[in-house]
Design a protein that fits this description.
CATH class: Alpha Beta
Distance between the termini: 18 Å
Helix content: 25-40%
Strand order of the largest sheet: 2-1-3-6-7
Oligomer: single chain
CATH superfamily: Flavodoxin domain
CATH topology: Rossmann fold
Mean pLDDT: 96
Shape: globular
Order of helices and strands: EHEHHHEHEEEHEH
Structural class: alpha/beta
Number of strands: 7
Radius of gyration: 17 Å
């Protein structure tokens, strides 16, 4: 049985991106196992933002959606489908101005969908994507993970947990402007330790 890896690159830089280079190393490590397939989702390739038409289509019962509403949700449906198919996520994101890149937030908005990746119950929301694991590579220039100005690592873990992915390992490559070599070596050490 094949293992499916979904790699999500959120850096808007293609060349010279530390998060992409670290993701290359992590994916290489994960694909040492036989029968492993990798699907790449590069967020420099347009991900739409939620707008009024999307909201109206999403909140319309699927059986009652018009052809136009189905077209509005088509890319979101495709992103949800590839997420559901994945066994493992590799997310590589920098921190931009204390948050994630807008394209990564747009991706989250496209895949965090009631009845698709989570559902509401009498006891609150329940994630529907259990049994998956995620590696999240986070790079930053000056924001150190685990400090008072780290608004990213906890948010990502919360969002993934919200849709049912609770086995999340953060690969920390923060503080690149302070000591780039140390930040990269710390991340590479975490990658080498992946079983």
């Amino acid at each position: 049985m094949n293992k499916e890896i979904l790699r999500i690159d959120a850096s808007m830089r293609v060349n010279g991106s530390v998060s992409r280079e670290l993701a290359d190393k992590l994916v290489a490590k994960l694909t040492e196992q036989p029968n492993t397939n990798v699907k790449n989702r590069d967020l420099t390739q347009s991900v739409p933002f939620v707008d009024e038409a999307w909201i109206n289509a999403n909140f319309t019962d699927p059986a009652e959606r018009s052809a136009e509403q189905r077209a509005v949700l088509a890319q979101s449906d495709a992103l949800v489908a590839e997420l559901k198919q994945a066994d493992t996520l590799v997310i590589a994101t920098p921190i931009y101005n204390f948050g994630v890149p807008a394209a990564f937030k747009a991706w989250i908005d496209m895949v965090a969908r009631a009845r698709e990746t989570f559902r509401y119950t009498e006891n609150g929301p329940v994630g529907l994507l259990e049994g998956k694991n995620a590696y999240v590579i986070i790079t930053s220039g000056g924001t150190e993970l685990g400090t008072d100005i780290d608004f990213v690592s906890g948010w990502i873990k919360h969002v993934l947990g919200f849709i049912g992915i609770t086995d999340v390992q953060i690969v920390n490559s923060s503080g690149l402007m302070k000591d780039q070599q140390a930040a990269i070596e710390r991340a590479e050490s975490s990658i080498r330790a992946v079983a």
